[in-house]
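queue> pop job 88
queue> type: inverse folding (structure -> sequence)
queue> payload:
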């Protein structure tokens, strides 16, 4: 069974068709890149997977749970890190992670154990008890990634997850994505950083105008050539 199954999904906003009959299957154990120019339909698709938007037609399932008909169960299986790391400004980082953990039903002992792990991964020991309103963009991104990791999602969806991170924490994030895949989960990563895709993703999907243009391994999509050149050729029309 695919961890993420998107079948013939469309979404319109008035006269604009943002997603047009899109289909995509992501199996367990995969880090998958979701590529396309601005306005291609990537964020709309991600918001439909996450339950923030309803598709006009087609179906989306996360680990076998339909996101419309069985939305609560589907959302229990995923974590979503948006392109702008949102935190509650008047909560500390610790309080935000505690809030997230309670939503997913983590017990106190598990929360404490995973907070220690996240502290080691994201180097946030000096910031856990500061209000989020004082965090830099990079600190916010690290806290949001830590919150996503806390409940060990089956599917992790990340939209430009590396923006604002320094080189050390870019490597931490990419290693975490691979670890999740190695443990049987999957990662869907929307990004414009094509060099990162070539070194860290198992397969890629390129979309434009809401439609899939290419799907497969980097080698299959580029036919052994350069990903940037091939991407520009596909999306320049």
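queue> result:
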């Amino acid at each position: 069974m695919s961890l993420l199954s998107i079948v013939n999904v469309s979404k319109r906003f008035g006269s604009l068709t943002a997603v047009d009959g899109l289909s995509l299957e992501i199996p367990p154990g995969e880090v998958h890149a979701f590529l396309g120019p601005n306005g291609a339909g990537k964020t709309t698709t991600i918001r439909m997977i996450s339950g923030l938007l309803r598709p006009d037609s087609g179906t989306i399932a996360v680990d076998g749970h339909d996101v419309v008909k069985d939305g609560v169960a589907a959302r229990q299986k995923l974590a979503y890190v948006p392109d702008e790391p949102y935190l509650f400004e008047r909560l500390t980082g610790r309080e935000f992670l505690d809030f997230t953990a309670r939503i997913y039903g983590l017990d106190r002992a598990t929360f404490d154990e995973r907070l220690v792990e996240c502290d080691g991964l994201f180097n946030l020991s000096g910031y856990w008890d500061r209000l989020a309103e004082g965090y830099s963009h990079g600190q916010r991104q690290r806290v949001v990634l830590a919150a996503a990791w806390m409940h060990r999602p089956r599917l992790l969806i990340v939209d430009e997850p590396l923006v604002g991170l320094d080189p050390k924490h870019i490597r931490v994030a990419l290693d975490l994505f691979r670890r999740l895949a190695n443990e049987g989960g999957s990662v869907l990563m929307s990004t414009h950083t094509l060099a990162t895709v070539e070194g860290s993703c198992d397969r890629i999907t390129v979309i434009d105008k809401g439609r899939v243009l290419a799907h497969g391994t980097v080698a299959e999509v580029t036919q052994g050539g350069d990903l940037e050149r091939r991407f520009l050729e596909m999306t320049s029309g």
